[in-house]
Write a structure and sequence with these properties.
Blueprint (H helix, E strand, L loop, with lengths): L11 E2 L2 E2 H4 L5 E5 L6 H19 L3 E6 L3 H11 L4 E4 L4 H5 L17 E5 L5 E6 L5 H11 L10
Parallel strand pairs: 3-4, 4-5
Antiparallel strand pairs: 1-2, 3-6, 6-7
Helix pairs in contact: 2-5
Amino acid sequence: MLHIGDLAPDFQIDGRLLSQWLPSGPVVVYFYPADFTPVCSKEACLFRDAHQSLAAAGVRVVGVSPQGQTSHDRFKKFLSLPYTLVSDVGMRITRSYGCTGMFGLPLPFGVRRVTFLVGPDQRILDRATGELRLRDHDRLLKQAAALPVLSPRSV
């Protein structure tokens, strides 16, 4: 799993690379096991509810999980999620961030619940983990919302 200070691997988000999103500010990238499960739904709502304060600080949110885009679209609509969900069916992105193996178990046991705060230099500024508890993820969101706002540049 990536650590604070590591370079965040690039991946496609809405037709652009993560590195192309970063000049306008940090990005929260969170990995979650599955759409429509109880803890994942609660986590998605945590990010949804923090969205306005994160946006005010110039921070964007991206969720990543192995379900297809159709599932993500339904999940976004069902929970009114204002941020992008990336489909990682082959788990290439998940593996590159080291977020495989729920509860620390090896594959095929899925995706670990991990949140990364990626800075404008593409380095990991902070990381939160927790399979069933969201306290550390909430802490990271509050820290991200408190970041000084950078001068926005278009992406």
